[in-house]
């Protein structure tokens, strides 16, 4: 697993981006935009990712166990092999191009919403 303190996104440490996002959720700071981010094998367990834009992100084999992805944008994201044990997906947005952890995972049953073109 990759430690998030060592992952850089646009020359910024991921941990700093997530800290700013946490402040944004409290009314201060900056919302995290991690669209198209390379988060392969990242340890994001128990991380608050509410409302984070993860569209097009590569989350292959990432540890998202216990993470909060409430209302996160997962359109075009790749979650192949990701650990979603206990992950909160209520209201998360996905599309037909989102790749889930395996063929048996049902994102609708987990509370995620499929994006419909034109809405």
Descriptors:
119 residues; little secondary structure; Pectate Lyase C-like; two-stranded parallel ribbon; 4 strands
Distance between the termini: 37 Å
> What count of domains describes the coordinates?
1
What is the level-2 CATH architecture name?
3 Solenoid
Average pLDDT taken over every residue: 95
Q: Strands of the largest sheet, in order across it?
A: 1-2
Unreliable spans are none
Q: How would you classify the helix and strand content by structural class?
A: little secondary structure
CATH superfamily: E3 ubiquitin-protein ligase SopA
The CATH topology assignment is: Pectate Lyase C-like
Beta strand count: 4
Report strand %. 5-15%
Approximate helicity band? 10-25%
**Global geometry:** globular
**Helix-strand sequence:** EEHEE
Rg, Cα atoms, Å: 13 Å
**Count of runs of 4 or more consecutive helical residues:** 1
Largest sheet: 2 strands, antiparallel
Name of the level-1 CATH class: Mainly Beta
Q: What does the model show?
A:
This protein has one helix at 14-25, and strands spanning 8-9, 12-13, 93-94, 113-114. It has one domain: Pectate Lyase C-like. With 119 residues, the chain is largely without helices or strands. It has 1 helix and 4 strands. The chain starts with 7 loop residues before the first strand and ends in a 5-residue tail after the last strand. The chain has a two-stranded antiparallel sheet.
């Amino acid at each position: 697993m990759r430690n998030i303190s060592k992952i850089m996104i646009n020359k910024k440490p991921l941990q700093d981006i997530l800290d700013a996002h946490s402040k944004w959720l409290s009314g201060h700071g900056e919302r995290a935009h991690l669209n198209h981010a390379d988060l392969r094998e990242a340890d994001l367990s128990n991380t608050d990712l509410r409302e984070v834009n993860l569209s097009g992100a590569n989350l292959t084999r990432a540890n998202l166990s216990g993470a909060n992805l409430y209302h996160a944008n997962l359109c075009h994201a790749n979650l192949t092999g990701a650990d979603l044990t206990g992950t909160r997906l209520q209201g998360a947005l996905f599309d037909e191009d989102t790749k889930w952890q395996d063929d048996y995972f049902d994102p609708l049953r987990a509370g995620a919403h499929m994006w419909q073109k034109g809405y």
